[in-house]
Design goal:
It contains 8 helices and 7 strands. By secondary structure, the chain is of the alpha/beta class. Strands 1-7-6-2-3 form a 5-stranded parallel beta sheet, sandwiched between helices.
Length: 216
Amino acid sequence: MLPVWYASVGICHWCEQKLSLDQPRCLSCALPTDTVSHSCAACQQQPILWQGTITAADYLPPLSKLLHQFKFSSHTALAAMLSRLILLNYLRYRRHYQWQKPDTVVAVPLHPKRYQQRGFNQSDLLARPLARWLACQYWPNAIRCTKLTATQHTLDRASRQSNLGQVYDATTNLCGKHVAIVDDVVTTGATAREIVKLLQLQQVASVQVWCLCRTL
């Protein structure tokens, strides 16, 4: 078990090496590639709806274990450390690929019943420090989850795609804003896709998706 004080310090050199933070990735979907690509073969066949995806690392140990402690064992003190991993990649992408700085950060919401069961929204805890560090607006309730569905991690790929229809609702007008959506894990992109559709109806200027882990 990770001691609570460790969360405010960071990760050790061994874990940092295991994370492969400099792994080349597709800038669209964040899946690993041999060299950095603005659009991998999969994204060329089926382009994403948003401008690009940032992830800290793949959903593998040690990050997957840290995320599990954070999300399912209520080790919320890990939030700042985990958010910092997302921040480091955003800063690298902004420096090397001229990524747009967001005006507004929003978190993928939990349904109120699931929030009550867990006691917190892990995406909200990741998004708050990112907005503060980057001096962005943060709207904790900009997107609302209106339908209780099966949790995404329990479903196969096909079921994930159909699980989220008409689940989310936009409560804040973000017209003209550059928006970053923060989630803990991106797998198929189904959650991001549903939220991006809502934001595009509001005619936002651009959308990026930031996550802690990208599943393979």
